[in-house]
Every structure is written in structure tokens, then in C-alpha cells.
Amino acid sequence: MVGYLNLILRLTIWFLLTADFSVANIIIGISIALLLPGGKTAKQSLKDWLRVLGEIIVAIPQAYMEAFQIILRPHKYEEITMEQVKPGRTPGLVFLDIFLITFTPKTIVLKYHEAGWYEVHWVRRRRKV
Q1: I need a labelling partner for 44 at 20 to 30 A (CA). Which of 1, 14, 72, 75 fits?
Q2: 107 - beta bridge partners?
Q3: Is 128 strand, coil or helix?
Q4: Which pLDDT belongs to residue 41?
Q5: Considering only CA atoms, which of 42, 61, 29, 59 is closest in space to residue 3?
Q6: What sections of the protein cross the membrane (predicted)?
Q7: pLDDT at position 40 over 60
Q8: Residue 57: pLDDT above 70?
Q9: Distance (Å, whole) CA 23 – CA 112
């Protein structure tokens, strides 16, 4: 089941990059998604995938709320923090985590450190004390 989720993730990225849903592009996308190497074979849990997808669905209204907050009350302060990657993350789940963090207007992942850390840039309304 998780293999299908990896395939769907690859196809989604392909369609986001190409923005073309012609038959030829769909065939090319499926071919590329199947030919890409699987990477490290780590145990992936369907529960982890569903949790991340649920977090992405929750992040959509949060992104709109943060956008309106930035429009109505400017955020003048910036901060860079290090956040630890949840243990046992596969490359697909790391990608979805980075997407989730970057999706909201107030945060963006600057760098993923192989040691298991995300470097996150925050825009804040006030300085943290």
C-alpha cells in the first residue's frame, strides 16, 4: 500500500512540475515514476502516511489564516530555528514534512540536514523573549 503512495507522490510532483494532463504526459509521468529508484528501503507505515496527509489537510485553512494575519498586521521580525525530524522518516515522508512546513506563509525550510534536522525560517509579529 505504501508503495502506491510513493507512486502517487511522484506522479503528483510530476504533474505539478509539468502542468500538463495530456495522454502523452501522463504516460511519461507514469514511466518516470516507475523507473525512479526506490531509495533506501525503510519500513514505512500507512499510519505515518495518513497522519502526514491529515496534517496537510489541516494546514490548508491554517495557511489562509496566516496569510490574512500577515496582510492585516505586518510581521516585522524573523527567526531561524532548528527543528528535529521525527524518527524513522523515509525520504517520501521527509519531503511531505518539508512541504507541510513550507506550505504555510510564515515558515519555510531553508535546509534539511542529514543529521535529522530542518533549518526553518519564521516570520513573527513580535520578537520572542
Answers
A1: 14
A2: 122
A3: coil
A4: 47
A5: 42
A6: 12-36
A7: no
A8: yes
A9: 35
